[in-house]
DNA sequence: TACTATGTTTAGTAATTACTAAACATAGTA
DNA sequence: TACTATGTTTAGTAATTACTAAACATAGTA
């Protein structure tokens, strides 16, 4: 069992890399966030280069993605020409930002396309046969599922206001 | 606006491919599921080859992945040597199965690793300085967030029993 | 102005993943 | 037994993605 801090930190960063990769982000993104998250003070680009082993270019672009989804914030110090980066610690805020960002994503375009398909099918329901009806039913069922998931997404956002303990209580109702 | 059924179906399958890709699965997987989902009867491997444009090999392996996560079921007919595949229509059942499957995944290994890190940090909290303490706080906060998300996953599973309408009502409480 | 410290973009490479084509395995049938 | 219809595995290719190295841009300083 390892008990020296640097090794522990390194393991943690490694875990975040894995998680990042699992969700389809570059593992470097997870590493950058991990390093920043464990740093008591904001870090410069060069410090990130040193601590993650990535090159300046990679850090530059990935840190921008992280900032775009709100997981990292960029700041500057007066009389210092470096940029400094620090991790968002309010994950609910970050999630809210990610979901907002997602509005324009390929994912949402696809979801919207399913919804449109459903409209077309509904519009033509009267003047078409059982095959059409079958397709309508299936697409509708999927759409309802998407809506349910979406409600849960909204719930995640609301968690922020409630706090974890209250959520546990509410979820208890579901038992 | 397109209103012939084959085109509508094709669009739908295309959308599912996109969604599949977005979640880090091969887009072929989404296409296979889409075709099966819109088919009133189970389809054979050769029919899937025809309708998706993929090769036998690809279908063979991807349909196995889909079966493993419970989104597709394989069946046979007496006196027919083909396998037939059909889509799971109970998405909640599928999600339950996916979450179960996830237990062994890279993702969960990483999550567990964070939890172990937290234990080590907690164990050493008494005999270490403020740096250690800082790391402990941060890792703990992340762990709590993971736990909250996990509660929501469980909630998704429970949705099945409640139905969509009730869920909407419960989520209303959160407003 | 030239120089320096910084961050960004770009062109290319390495690594990964999805997929194809074809060999292979197997169970059933003549 | 040889043959056929099926599904699987394998070796390789195509496509995609993550990343590097280095050129570039720019704001500040001497």
In the CATH hierarchy, what is the architecture of the largest domain in chain A at level 2? Answer: Orthogonal Bundle
Structure annotation, total helices of chain A: 8
| Uncertain stretches of chain A | none
Strand order, main sheet of chain A: write it out.
1-3-2
User: Which two chains share the most extensive interface?
Assistant: A-B, 66 and 65 residues
Number of domains of chain A: 2
Share in β-strands of chain A: 5-15%
The secondary structure category of chain A is: mainly alpha
End-to-end separation of chain A in angstroms reads 38 Å
**Assembly form of the protein:** homodimer
CATH class of the largest domain in chain A: Mainly Alpha
- The global form of chain A is elongated
Taking all Cα atoms into account, the compactness measure Rg of chain A is 22 Å
CATH topology (level 3) name of the largest domain in chain A: Arc Repressor Mutant, subunit A
**Average pLDDT over all residues of chain A:** 86
The main sheet of chain A comes to: 3 strands, antiparallel
Number of strands of chain A: 3
**Helicity level of chain A, as a percent range?**
over 70%
CATH homologous superfamily annotation of the largest domain in chain A: Winged helix-like DNA-binding domain superfamily/Winged helix DNA-binding domain
What is the ordering of alpha helices and beta strands of chain A?
Answer: HHEHHEEHHHH
Question: What does this entry look like structurally?
Answer:
The structure is a homodimer of 175-residue chains. With 175 residues, the first copy, chain A, is mainly α. Chain A folds into two domains: 5-89, Winged helix-like DNA-binding domain superfamily/Winged helix DNA-binding domain (Arc Repressor Mutant, subunit A, Orthogonal Bundle), CATH 1.10.10.10; 92-173, no CATH class. The first copy, chain A, is built from eight helices and three strands, in the order H-H-E-H-H-E-E-H-H-H-H. Chain A has helices spanning 5-22, 27-37, 45-52, 56-68, 91-102, 106-123, 130-162, 164-173, and strands at residues 43-44, 72-76, 83-87. Chain A has a three-stranded antiparallel beta sheet with strand order 1-3-2. Chain A starts with a helix and ends with a helix. The mean pLDDT of chain A is 86. Chain A binds a DNA duplex (30 and 30 nucleotides) through helix 4.
């Amino acid at each position: 069992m390892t008990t020296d801090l640097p090794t522990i930190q390194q393991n943690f960063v490694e875990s975040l890399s894995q998680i990042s990769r699992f969700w389809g982000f570059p593992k470097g993104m997870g590493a950058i966030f991990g390093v920043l998250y464990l740093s008591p003070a904001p870090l410069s680009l060069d410090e990130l280069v040193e601590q993650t082993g990535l090159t300046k270019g990679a850090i530059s672009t990935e840190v921008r993605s992280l900032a775009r989804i709100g997981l990292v914030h960029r700041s500057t110090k007066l009389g210092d020409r470096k940029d400094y980066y620090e991790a968002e610690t309010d994950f609910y805020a970050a999630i809210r930002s990610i979901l907002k960002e997602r509005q324009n994503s390929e994912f949402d375009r696809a979801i919207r396309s399913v919804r449109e398909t459903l409209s077309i099918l509904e519009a033509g329901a009267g003047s078409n046969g059982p095959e059409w009806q079958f397709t309508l039913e299936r697409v509708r069922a999927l759409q309802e599922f998407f809506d349910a998931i979406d409600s849960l997404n909204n719930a995640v956002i609301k968690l922020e206001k409630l706090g974890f303990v209250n959520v546990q209580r509410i979820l208890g109702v579901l038992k």
